[in-house]
Amino acid sequence: MFKRLPDNFATSCLRGSGQVFFQENAATGACFLLAIFYASYAGGQWSTSIGALIGLVVSTLTAYAIDRRDNAIGAGMYGFNGILVGVAVPTFLVAGPVMWFYVVVGAAVSTVVMDAMTNVVSKNWGVAASTGPFVLTTWMLMLAAYSFANVGIGGMGPPRIAHEIAVAAPGIEPGEAVAIVFRNIAQVFLLGSAVSGVLIVIGLLISSIPAAVAAICGSIIALAGALWFGADPASIKAGMYGFSPVLTAIAIAVVFIKSSAKVALFALLATIFTVIAQGAMDALMSPFGIPTFTAPYVLAMWLFTLPKQALVPHPHSPDARSKLSTGS
Amino acid sequence: MFKRLPDNFATSCLRGSGQVFFQENAATGACFLLAIFYASYAGGQWSTSIGALIGLVVSTLTAYAIDRRDNAIGAGMYGFNGILVGVAVPTFLVAGPVMWFYVVVGAAVSTVVMDAMTNVVSKNWGVAASTGPFVLTTWMLMLAAYSFANVGIGGMGPPRIAHEIAVAAPGIEPGEAVAIVFRNIAQVFLLGSAVSGVLIVIGLLISSIPAAVAAICGSIIALAGALWFGADPASIKAGMYGFSPVLTAIAIAVVFIKSSAKVALFALLATIFTVIAQGAMDALMSPFGIPTFTAPYVLAMWLFTLPKQALVPHPHSPDARSKLSTGS
Amino acid sequence: MFKRLPDNFATSCLRGSGQVFFQENAATGACFLLAIFYASYAGGQWSTSIGALIGLVVSTLTAYAIDRRDNAIGAGMYGFNGILVGVAVPTFLVAGPVMWFYVVVGAAVSTVVMDAMTNVVSKNWGVAASTGPFVLTTWMLMLAAYSFANVGIGGMGPPRIAHEIAVAAPGIEPGEAVAIVFRNIAQVFLLGSAVSGVLIVIGLLISSIPAAVAAICGSIIALAGALWFGADPASIKAGMYGFSPVLTAIAIAVVFIKSSAKVALFALLATIFTVIAQGAMDALMSPFGIPTFTAPYVLAMWLFTLPKQALVPHPHSPDARSKLSTGS
Question: Which residues of B touch C (CB under 8 A)?
Fold first, then answer.
C-alpha cells in the first residue's frame, strides 16, 4: 500500500509497535501508538503512554547493544515486547522511582528474553516467541511487587484462592456487544477504550485486511464463547476474555498461508480453546494476584502452530521477515 | 498371540484405548473399555463411559482431519489422550451442555496437543509425549470451570492451601491391600473399582505379560511407599497413590529392552520417586482445586527416560510403533 | 595454583562440592565442606553436614552406576546437586527415618535429573543445567512433605497467600552490611553464617580470583538492590536476597571469556534481574510453603546465557570441562 520506509531507529520502533499485531509496518505502528495516547487522554492517565514510549525505545536500544541481527531489529522484532512491558507496568503499579526503574529494566530484560526464548522455541521447535517474553518478564515484575515495599500495587490483586462462580453472565445488548468487540481488540495493548480498538483496526487495515478481519472474527467468537460458558460479566465487558483469542485468530488464520475451510476450522478450534485457556489462567493466577497478560494466546498459539511447523511461516519470529504484511 | 488386525477406524480406536497402558493391541483396548463400562455399571453413572467413547472417536477423527501419519493413527497414538479426557471431564464436572462441549473440544484439542508435544519432546529430546497432552488439556478444562458459571464442578476441589498432615495412615488389612493393588491400576483410567483393575490386568496379559507383571509390582511398591511415607489413608485406599507409579513401572522396566538387575533397580527408584511426586503434586495442585491426573508419571517418565534416550525404544511415541506388544 | 590431582572417588566428590560455585577444584571443594561444618558447629546442628556428605557420596555413586562419562564424574558434575539436596533436606525437614531416606533417594534422583536436564538444556539449547536438578528434586521432596505424615516440616512454610508488604527495609549499619555480604555467599549452601561465607570466598580465591571478585560484587549489588526495592528486612539480613544474584554474577561475568565494559553491564542487568526474580519467586512459592532455592539464579542464568550461547563456554556443564578454573 505504501513504499517501505528505510530501516532506522524511528521505523524500527514504529514497526515494533505494529508487531504487537504481527504487522511489520510503521504506519500501522503509529496508529497503535495513537490508540494508546487516546486511551491515556480519555482516562486522564498519561503514565501508560510514557511507559509505552520508554519501553519501545529501551527495548530497541538494548537490541542494538547486544545483538547484530539488524534485519530483525529493523522489522520491529525487539520493540513489541518492550512496548507491552511499558504499558503494563504503569497500568498495574503505582508511579514512583522504583516503578519507572521497573519500566526501564523490564524493557531491557524483555529484549534479552526475546533472544533467549527465540533460541529455544524458534530455533529448536520452529514456532515464534511472540509475546512470551513480555508475559514472562512482566510476571516477574508484578510478582516481585508483592515482596517490595517501594513498589505499590495499584490495579491488580489481591491474591486469593479461586472459587467456583455461580452467576452466569446475563445477555448483552447489541450496542454493548459492538463496544466489547472493539474493547477486546484494545485490551491487546491493555487499553479499556473501544475507540482505541477502532484505531487499532484502522491500523490493521493499513497493512493487512485479512488480519483486520481475523481480529474482528476472533473478537466476536470470543464474546460468544465467554457468554455461553458463563464467564464473569464484568470481565467480559472489560474485554478481558477477548484480547488473547483475537491474537490467536490472527496468528492461526492469517499465518496459515493457504486459507481453506479446514484452516478456518482449525483457527476456530484454537480461538475457542483460547477462551477456555483464559478462564483457566484466570483461576491459575488468582492465588498469585497477577494478570494472565497474553499467556492464554501464547499457549494456544504454540500448541496450534507446533503440529504444522513445516507449513507455517512465522512473520513474528526475529529470524523471518513477514511476507504477508506490506512494508511501509 | 493373535494375528494383527488391519488398520481401520475401529481398530485405531481400540488400540487408542490399549495405548493408555502402552499396548498397541485392539483386544487389550476392548478389555480396557470393558473395565470402564463395568465401573459405570457398578457406580450407576454412565456419563464416563459415554465420555470415553466420544473422546476416543473425536480425538481419532481429529487426527485423520489434521494429520497424514496413518501409521501413528492406526497404532492408536491419537486415541489414548482423547479417551482419558472423555473419562475425566464427566468424572469431575456436572453433566450439561457445556460439559459435553468440553468433552468434544477437549478430545479434539488433545490430538493437536499430542502433535505439538511430540514435536517438542520426541523430535527434540527423544522421549514420548505419553499422557502429557491429556494432563495439559484437562488441566485447562478443569481450571476454566472455576471461571465459568455454566460448567458445574462436581468431584474435585475446593481449592485450598495445602497444610501439613499429622495423622499417618494406619496399617492395611491383607484383603484390603489386594483390592488397593487393583484399584491403583484401575485409577489409570480414573476408575475406583478393583474389578476394573482386574479387567485391565487381563487386557495386559493378552498383549504383554511383562507389562502385567510390572503393573502389579509397581502397584505394590506404590502401596508400600505411600504407607511408609504416611500418606492420607483415604487417598491410599482410593488408589490415588498408585496409578502414576504403575505407569512409571511399566514405562521404565518394560521399555528398557535388556532387562537386568540394574534396570530393575532404576525402575524401582523411578517408581518410588513417582510416589513422592504424587504427594508433591497433590500439594502443588491444592490451591487450584484440580487433580494431578497422571502428571507425576509424566514427570518421572521424562526424567528417567531422558538420560538413556539413545538406548530406549518408545512404543508410546507416534513416530515409532511398538515392537514389544503383539499386534491384534 | 596446584597440580591437578588424579580423578578418583574422593577428588570427584570434592570437586562436586567445588562445582556449587563452578569450581572444578578439590581444594576449593574442601574449603566449602569446611564452611558447612563450621555452620553446623556454630549452630550445634550436625544433620546438615551429615546430609551434605551423604548427598555428595550417593549422587556421585549413582553417576558411576548409571553413567559412563567419567570425565564429567571426575570433574564433579554429579556431586554439586547432590550435596545441595543433602544440606537442604535436613535444613527444612525434621530428622527421622523418612527424612534420611529422602536424603538418599533425593541425591540419587538428582543425578538422574542432572542427566535428563543436561540432555534438554545443554544438548538442545547450549546452556548449563547447573543447580536446576537440585531445585526440581528438592521442590518435589519438600512439597511431598505436606502430604506425608511421617516427614515432619521444620524450617519452612506454612503455605500462605502472598500479600503486599508495606514496611520498607530500614537502613543497614556498615558493620551489618559486611556480614550480610558474606551471608549472601554462605546461603548458596543454605548456611546462615557469615564466617562460612568467608571460608567460601577463601575457597574461591584458591581456584579463581575473578570468581571471588564477582561473588563479592554480586553480593553487594544484591544488597543495594534489595534495600532500594524495599524488600523484607529480615530476609535481607538472613542473606536470602543474595545467594542467587551471587551465582548469577559469577556465571555471567566470569563465564563470558572476553571481559569488557559491555559484558560487565550485561552481568549487572542479570544480577539486578535476579534480585527481582527472587522477590517474584518468594511470592510465587508462598502458597506452596516451600523455599525458592536457587531457582531465581537458574532462571536468570538461562535467560542471559541463551542469547549468546555460541560465545559462552559453560564449565558447569557435564559435557565441557572448565578451562577457567585451575585444577587441583
Answer: 124-126, 161-169, 228-232, 262, 266, 269, 272-273, 276-284, 287, 302-304, 306-309
